[in-house]
Amino acid sequence: MSGHILALSGGVGGAKLAAGLAAVLPPEDLTIAVNTGDDFEHLGLTICPDIDSVTYALAGLNDTVRGWGVVDESWRTMERLGALGEESWFNLGDRDMAMHLARSWRLRAGESLSEVTARLTQALGIGPRVVPMSDAPVRTQVETEDGWLDFQHYFVREQCRPAARAIRFDGTPGAAMSPGLAEALARPDLAAVILCPSNPFLSVDPILAVDGVRDALAARKVPFIAVSPLVGGQSLKGPLGKLLGELGRENSNAAIAAHYAGLLDHLIIDESDAADAEGLRAMGISVTVAPTVMYGAAEREQLARVALSAARLG
Amino acid sequence: MSGHILALSGGVGGAKLAAGLAAVLPPEDLTIAVNTGDDFEHLGLTICPDIDSVTYALAGLNDTVRGWGVVDESWRTMERLGALGEESWFNLGDRDMAMHLARSWRLRAGESLSEVTARLTQALGIGPRVVPMSDAPVRTQVETEDGWLDFQHYFVREQCRPAARAIRFDGTPGAAMSPGLAEALARPDLAAVILCPSNPFLSVDPILAVDGVRDALAARKVPFIAVSPLVGGQSLKGPLGKLLGELGRENSNAAIAAHYAGLLDHLIIDESDAADAEGLRAMGISVTVAPTVMYGAAEREQLARVALSAARLG
Prior knowledge:
The structure is a homodimer.
Chain A: E1 4-9, H1 12-24, E2 30-34, E3 40-42, E4 45-47, H2 49-59, H3 76-83, H4 94-108, H5 113-123, E5 129-132, E6 139-144, E7 147-150, H6 151-157, E8 164-170, H7 179-186, E9 190-195, H8 200-209, H9 213-218, E10 224-227, E11 230-231, E12 234-235, H10 240-246, H11 253-259, E13 266-270, H12 277-282, E14 286-290, H13 297-310
């Protein structure tokens, strides 16, 4: 293939495909722009869960059994924080903590999130550029019967229990694209945009809410390929199914495609959802049916190849 | 006994006697005011080594084998910080980290160091009041052939190798006593001030440099008892012997007593230095000769009783 690939990623599922793309592409051909709407300030630390998921997956440090965080993790600081009377609902592992500490002090010292992310991913030997969607703080908030909740309060503290009525991205409009995302979108050699399998409402919409992203994607001259986050009509993980219902959407690939109307060329759906293909094609979306569950490196790389091939680059 | 005891403490040695006093006195009868000249900002954390030494000793969490920090410690965050290219010369244990995180975010949120210290010591079930010498930042700096070094750079990073020419306490004059120290000094029922065995130049002088402390001690109407940090003419730990030479002082109890001239009533010296007693008495200092090496709880409590007895309170 030739040309540059821009991957857009949310959390754990997106990070797996990002790692697959990193495994099959030369590092200079890949930019991974990551959702920062999940970021939050906690115990004085700036925590960027999706950037960390991508970073750990690309560095081979992700815990594949627990499904999030760093492999071989321990929780000794957390245990003492509890003993000191501090909040302990958000689990901060001892190995993971180094990332939060390094990022937080450098942000406070004046580095941008892009600069810090470049520094830390390079320190871990990651080749492709990993960039935040924006250097400005964007904070996803979910309206529930209890009022507006910050994302991590909704997602981790409340375990997505309250019914969601609406979602907003505090800081948008007004959040500029990060230099790395703007640069990737403007590259003359941009060959495709690949949307990794991530929650459309919680992980992708914040990226689309960043100033100029939706317009740039709508005006693009290259294929825009998404991998559906649904498998057998359900999300593998996280609150997507519940959210789709609460927000009055159908729990289907048609609803996913409709959500990206005007942007998407091609949707990769899981083989368990092969029956959805015809309806999607009737909506003007081209479809690839493929295994999308990524158990390990082999499936990640295979799905990356399927996505590149859908862009006629594989 | 009756009345309130004010103990002044530096690091590990001081913390041991503070723990001894805490074991033999009712909690409401003891205030421990701690040196904060060693405090520093590192990786975005406010680290207060002497407050932590006292806190861990009083909570029974101190590591008695390593001699500093928390018992049953691990260094998993530290190891990852190194992998991320961050400074790793100052060891931050995983259990210890909780203290730095809790303190740092609460200071940043606007609590004073006194408030944070009260909160964290109470969370650990510590009865006596542990207070910083001041809520204003005071930073000990050491002049060496390489110029002025921040204390932890001199002490930990450079392992006290450069010869010291002078010591200063950045932030003084101008640093007010903490409310807890001011209150203890002003108490009508103050019965004695006990100076724990700590380095005069590095641990005690910063306390004496806080606005009003030296004057209040000089004007006191109660006994001021010090436990010498020397054992057999040497400091048990730390750079005191080296510093005494570099700063042109004798390595002796007479030099310690001379350093506190006009303040001290009574010096407790180790039985290995019994020969110093006569000279000290000639200087007008009353002397108790006693075992001052605190291997464990028994020796800590015994030395606490000796100090209280020297104040005619035991």
